[in-house]
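Morning, I've got a small favour to ask if you have a moment. I've been staring at a protein lately and its backbone has me curious. You're getting the sequence in one-letter code plus the fold written as tokens. I've dropped the whole record in just underneath, so have a look:
=====
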Amino acid sequence: MNTIKKLMKSIRQFKAASILSPVCVALEVAMECIIPLYMTEMIAKINTPDVKITDILLYGAILLVLAGVALLFGVLAGKFAATASTGFAKNLRQDMYYRIQGFAFSNIDKFSAPSLVTRMTTDVTNVQMAYMMIVRVAVRAPLMLIFSLAMAFVLNAKVALIFLAVIPVLAIGLFIMFRFVDPIFTRVFKKYDAMNESIQENIKGIRVVKSYVRDEYEDEKFQKTSNNVRYDFLKGEKIIALSGPLMQFCMWFSILMICFLVPMIGVKAGIGASTEDKASAEIASEMSSLIVYATQILSSLMMLNMVMIMISIANTSSKRIVEVLSEESDLHNPENPAYEVKNGDVRFEDVDFKYDVKADRRALKGVNLDIKSGETVGILGGTGSSKTSLVNLIPRLYDATSGHVFVGGRNVKEYDLETLRNEVAVVLQKNVLFSGTIKENLRWGNADATDEELERVCKLAQAHDFIMGFPDKYDTFIEQGGTNVSGGQKQRLCIARALLKKPKILILDDSTSAVDTKTDALIRKAFAEEIPNTTKFIIAQRVASVQDADKIIIMDGGSVADVGTHDELLARNEIYQEVYYSQNKTNNDGEEVKADGAED
């Protein structure tokens, strides 16, 4: 019930269409049930000796009007049902999208990206189809069943008892099928997630797949996940297919009994006929009408069965959708948030952090740091040493499990989230550019930035020169994901975009790994000269990128192993010494030569 209530909120402006569709369906069914009854009377009348051509034309005209009215209401019902269901799906996707946009990273981790994609596409489509069937078919089927049964009893109550015997047989058979199919469709959507995950992984790692010639392995892996989905759907469809023969058996049995009983009952009753021909005509008209009602009654049960199966599929999908709509972000604004960040001071006090509160392992353990506004802080450490985890706590992309993180003298949990993140610019490890021009991508940092401001930050990020080398310069179109620019160019554009925010804290998470050492040095020099009051965190693999920093933090296994300047760490810290000497060699004259490099 809570699931239905949650979904109903997404109907909104399409309530009128959702109500009008069942109304039109009811009127359409009424017309369709009146037509066979009218046909019985019409056939009986036109078989009388004194019938005139004008009578036949009149009956035909009335029949055409009834059929036309039924058609009109059917068309309107279809139109309103389509409007209601597609509008409902649009609102549902919109609500899910806005909800996901408000999620913290921890919420995204809980669902996984492939699962969220499936929920917004396949699951919403299933709910849309079920909703269309509910506002149209689920109304039509029971009304058709009730009206047709009532008309059959009006026509011939004794023969209509056949339907009361056949309906339970068909209903029980369909119910048993439904009970078998329901768990199959419940299970299949989890396999959908696995299939989407396989596709996403393959597309993201397509270069690795090609480089290592693992196409066949990936094909087999996808074939396996695809077959898992196929197997369950095939199993469910086989069970559903049994409803066809059962329906045909019940229908033909009913028709056979009608053909057997109507003449016998009709002759015994005399049908009030004065001649044998008249009696035969009335029996024929009665039989044809009862056969029509039999078809309508049994078809209604079949439609109800299909609705139940569709609702069964949609039930699983709706629960998955409601899981997203009901999920609350792990990050919240305080009751009276602060809307000003005074400066770029950053302090960590006994900070522990886990990506999952139930996990045994801590990503960060007992971190204590004190960084003053305007300082440049380098962060070094091996893979998995939690360098990124550390800086993610500053803009509250995640919250510390225990301990406190302070920015500008305040606990980050006291700030308005938007205010805090506007003052903390992050250039992540995975650089993302969106489809659009270079200007449009840069203005993600500041929508109101002038062309002069764009040029200034691009010069700071050493991006201006290569941009001017493009034919369209700043109006050059960037493909989705930045696939038409190199890794180094992409990194510099992302740095420029971050600078456009004019932040008090700038975090570069391994953001110069794809640029050469000379360009890296020019970027750091520009930072020191142009934004001296901005606190800068530079996560890097190269010592050259951080050796001029005011402080260098050495991370090891989630803990701060040491903090100091380049000279201090080189004198006392083994981790720093190992990294430094592995990246530097000495020539014959005793001069240091940089051994590391990067591709642009």
